[in-house]
Structure formats: structure tokens, C-alpha cells
Amino acid sequence: MSGAEVVITGIGVVSPIGSSLEAATASLKHGRHGLSKVSLVPGREESARVVGKVSGYAFPSPDVRDWVVPDDSAVDPVKEPTLAPHGVFAVDALEQALDQAGWEARDWQDPRTGLAAASSGSPMLLKHHLDTLEATAWRRGHPYGVVRSVAGTLNFNLAARYGIQGASTGFVSACASSSHALGYAVDEIKLGRQERMIVVAAEEVFVESVLPFDAMRALTLCEDPNSASRPFDRGRDGFVMAEGAVAMVLEASSTAIGKPLAKICGWGQAADGYHVASPDPEGRGLCRAMRRALGDAEVSADDIDYVNAHATSTVAGDRAEALALRSVFAEGGKVPRIVSTKGLTGHGLSYAGLLEAAIVVISLSEGFVPGNVNLREPDPACEGLPLPISAEAVPCALALTNSSGFGGANVCHVLARV
Amino acid sequence: MAAFFQHLTDEQLRHELRGFPSITVEAALTLQANAAPAQVSAVVVRILSFYLPRGAEADLTTQPDAARLREDLGIDSLALSEAAFKLEELFDMRVENAELAEMQTLGDLRKFAERRLLDR
What we know:
The complex is a heterodimer of chains A (418) and B (120). With 418 residues, chain A is α/β, with parallel strands linked by helices. Chain A has one domain: 3-Layer(aba) Sandwich (Peroxisomal Thiolase, Chain A, domain 1). Chain A contains 11 helices and 14 strands. Chain B has 6 helices and no strands. The radius of gyration of chain B is 13 Å and the shape is globular. Chain A binds chain B through residues 65-66, 76, 78-82, 139-140, 142-144, and chain B through 18-19, 50, 53-54, 78, 81-82, 84-85, 88, 94.
């Protein structure tokens, strides 16, 4: 799509691999993962799973009075009781991004500034509120029960907290959600509807949000945090769920307040039309989405230096993506480095796409690609794909990042160094 | 006269009020021990103070009856609902929607506390 050039001028990260852009960059460079084995129900060993937790925060009960946040958090949970735990992460990430972009309140409260958010809501709080209602014969519930727990809680809260007066919406396409949010934000600027957009995505790890995926047999059985998440590896057996938040500030380059960190050249999406939870086995939807993104960016496959893959460490998903990548890049002759950073970060579900877009910006601006850290023996489906194991110093000008979600949703973005 | 918070022991009352300022906790415990009617509305106002939205930091205990909850004190309808939720827990009572809707001033809240709680 032609129209205004869109640049990223601020990024905030609160994640298992660090709660600042600098900390996350160091973890990516040095291959330090952020995963650990945690009892999701305290004292119940059978609830223990390898997950990605954000350090410095604790939410031991649904009551905000019991919550612990870092000293430098922008949130006093007692004073902002409508925020879910992932909303707290999101505010702290957004504060970083706004600070980096050099925005002031008048900038985010300008009607030409919009917000696009993504999260699954808070299953932990939703269960708590429904339990409270049921225990009182459906007569008494917490007044904030809805706005702090349902999908949409993130955009409700951020729009109100920051006084957003432009576009405000949320996305629920599972693990493609924040990539959809990013694409929508790009389009809003390119179409001239908004001059600036804030994109925020977040998730939280509690028993209520993790173990439903265990019931789907989607989580890894591996109990070792050092090898549990191993995208593209022949021995992979499921994903590791992670919490955190990423915020990104986008601006039309002609009127940007902040200094551009990278440019978003184009994006594309395409659905599999295949299954509610499994990918098309040949990755045909993802293939179409990649080609559409390349077309939107007006670049060819052999212009791409690096692909941040969606690969979550599931048997079916990684294989489908590997086949899709081979299909798209075999034609160009040059096959870029392919990296899934989920070996380091775990899988952030709806915030994964934005986290990985942020990782791509880091790669473009810092001149390195991270490694597929736990890859020991690549799946045969990956034949011909360059899969670096550890970070490599490589100047990259153009990168592609993939996201796929339930229902066969596939979203891809092309980003360029500035 | 029986303990004021009839369904709560002192320990449970402290737990329910964890995170509240110590002066509020002590006021509630005093009320529990003495069931002193004069203290009822003061405790209720202190509890409401805890739910003041971010940026609305007025000391409600020193405010006159005429102070308007929304316009003068910055207490929005959800904050009032949240305080009512806590009052229901603490006093094992039901606050009706109509009662909340009629609560416009701090004086209305004080009268509500006296009307609903003094005869317990």
C-alpha cells in the first residue's frame, strides 16, 4: 500500500528476557533465555510447567493489595484496580516507548493519535469474578470484574489511562493478534486517518491461562528450562508459554516527533481456510501472507536478509512454517537467515508478534541476528534453511517477521533499517 | 451489644483491611470492640477514602457533609461501586443500586452508614 511512510520511534519491552530494550538486546545477543519451571498452583507440583515469567512483579491473588511491582513501575495497583496483571506490564512497557519517542501528554491525547492493542484478557481474573458471583447466588460481583478481565481489557484501560482521542481498538486473533494490531496501525497512518499510533500487546502467565493449552496437548512435556522451547528441532514437542508486554510507537515519518528506529515497509495477511487450531500442513496460508507482505513492501524475497519465524516449538506449526519459508525463498535464490527467538522468550501468544517485531528492530539497528538457541538437530522439513544456533553479527537491511494464530490466521510484516 | 462486624473475627477483619492505612484498620477494630455508634460513619468514610481514583487524594474525613462525591472529591461511579463492594463484604450487607444512585454527597454517605448500620 502506498501512502505515508511509517516509522517506529519508540519501543518498550517488559519480558522474560528483560524489562527494557537494552536488557532484551543483551539477552538476544548473548543467548540468555528467560524461562523457568514454576508451580502454577503454589505447593502443587503437578501444576509445575516451564514458563516465561517477568521478574520483579508478583500477583499472588486477584486482590490488587497483594500485588508487587518494581520500584520503578508507573503503576500503583491499588490506585489502578481496573488493570489486569498484563495491563500493569503494558503500562510499564508503554511508558518506556513513549519516553524513547520523546512524546508528551499532548501528543498521545491528540485526536490524530490512535491506539491498537492485543491481549487474551485475564482468564485468572475472569474465573475469580465468576466464582465470586456464583458464590453469592449471582447477586454480588466486583464492579470492575468485566473491564479488568475480558478480552479488550487492555485497550479499555490504556485508552482511558492515557486519554486517547483517536482510534482505539483491540485484536483477538490469538497468536497473530498483535501482528494484526501492528498492521492496522500501519494502515491507519498510511491512509492518513491518524498521524501516530500506539500499539501495545501483553499476556500473563497463571494456571488459568497456561493449563488450558496443556489440555490441547500444545505445551512441551520437557521440564528443563534450558531446552524446553526448541523451535525447528526434530525433538520439539510443544511450546512454552510466556508473559510480558511490548509497546511500539509508530509515526508518519514526515511529522515524526521521535527519532526513527526502523521503517515498516509493508504487511500482509492470509488465512489457511483449513482448521480451527492446526495449521495448513503445507503452510499455504502463511506462504500467501509472506508474499502479500513482500508485495505490499514492493520488495522481492531475495531482498530479505533475515526472517523472524513464528515457530513456537510445536510439531505441526514449525513444520508448516518451514515448508512455507522454503516455498517463498527457494524462488528468489537467496535464502535469508531464519530465526525463531521463542527458544529464548517462550511463546507470548497474542503479544508474540509485537515482541518479535521489536526483536527485528533490534536486529536491524544493532546489526546482528539472534540464534535458534536450542536447535540441536533440525527437522528434515527445514532442509536448505539457514538456521543459526547462536547470535551472528550480520548487517541486515530488510527483515520479515511472521505470526500465525488459531483459525489459521497468518500475518507478516516487512521492516527496514533506517 | 454484639461485635459490630458480626461475621468477622478481629483477625479476619485485619485481613479484609490489609493494605488500608493503619488508622482505618484501628478505627474498624475499635468499632468492632466497642460498637460505638459515633464511629460508624467515620469508618465508612475512611473505607471510601481507600478507593479514591488516582489523582483524587482528598482527605475525606475532614470534608464537610456538603462535599459532592463526584464533582468535589473526584469519586466516580465505579470507585463508589468498588467501595460499596467492600462495605458489603465487611458488614455482611447488601447495598442496593438505588442507594448508590442517591448518594450524591459525603453527607449522604454518612447518613447511609448511620441508617443502615447503627441498629446492628
